[in-house]
């Protein structure tokens, strides 16, 4: 991934307030992103909302890198209506590590964090309602992990719950 440094008031604000917790500020295809230490994510979200106008949490997702440490990368997409700008914040999460919940900063994080848990198995410390949201409660595993055998699980669930053979 060819990146170039992201300079300007937003990266300067992040570095001034969060210091060494800001690991990188770059542009990829003119899209700005910052890589943060995981404990700095919620303070960064608060800072960007209150002082830079990034008032809309568009999405939270994750990427599974089974051969990397930490294994997962959380990706938060923020948008500022006033600036008409979008930025991404990223943080690494180790297998079994809990990320801090962003629900106190953005209420919309509630469902987004539940989706990330459901698909990747990443838990969020302090989340008010950590139930599954996309998959049935009895579903075993996390479908967007690279080592997940979706066909096998789908076949088991369909047989057990619908009493038919899966079309897989």
Q: Separation of termini?
A: 35 Å
Describe the biggest sheet? Answer: 6 strands, mixed
Quote the average pLDDT.
Answer: 93
Stated plainly, the CATH topology of the largest domain is called Beta Polymerase, domain 2
| C-alpha geometry | elongated
CATH class of the largest domain: Alpha Beta
Report helical residue fraction.
Answer: 25-40%
The overall number of domains is: 2
Summarize the structure.
Helix content is 28%, strand content 27%. The protein is α/β, with parallel strands linked by helices.
Plain-language structure description:
There is one protein chain. A six-stranded mixed beta sheet has the order 1-2-3-6-5-4. The model has no long low-confidence stretch (mean pLDDT 93). The protein is elongated and about 60 Å long. It is built from four helices and eight strands. The protein has 168 residues and is α/β, with parallel strands linked by helices. Helices cover 28% and strands 27% of the residues. The two termini are 35 Å apart.
């Amino acid at each position: 991934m060819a990146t170039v440094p992201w300079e300007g008031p937003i990266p300067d604000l992040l570095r001034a307030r969060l210091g060494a917790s800001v690991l990188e500020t770059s542009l990829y295809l003119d899209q700005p992103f910052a890589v943060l230490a995981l404990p700095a994510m919620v303070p960064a979200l608060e800072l960007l909302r209150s002082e830079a106008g990034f008032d809309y949490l568009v999405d939270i997702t994750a990427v599974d890198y089974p051969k990397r440490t930490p294994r997962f990368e959380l990706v938060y997409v923020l948008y500022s209506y006033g600036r008409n700008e979008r930025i991404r914040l990223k943080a690494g999460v180790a297998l079994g590590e809990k990320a801090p919940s962003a629900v106190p900063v953005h209420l919309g994080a509630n469902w987004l964090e539940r989706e990330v848990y459901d698909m990747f198995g990443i838990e969020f410390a302090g989340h008010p309602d950590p139930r599954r949201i996309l998959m049935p409660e009895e579903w075993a595993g996390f479908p967007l992990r690279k080592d997940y055998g979706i066909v096998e699980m789908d076949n088991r669930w369909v047989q057990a719950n619908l009493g038919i053979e899966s079309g897989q």
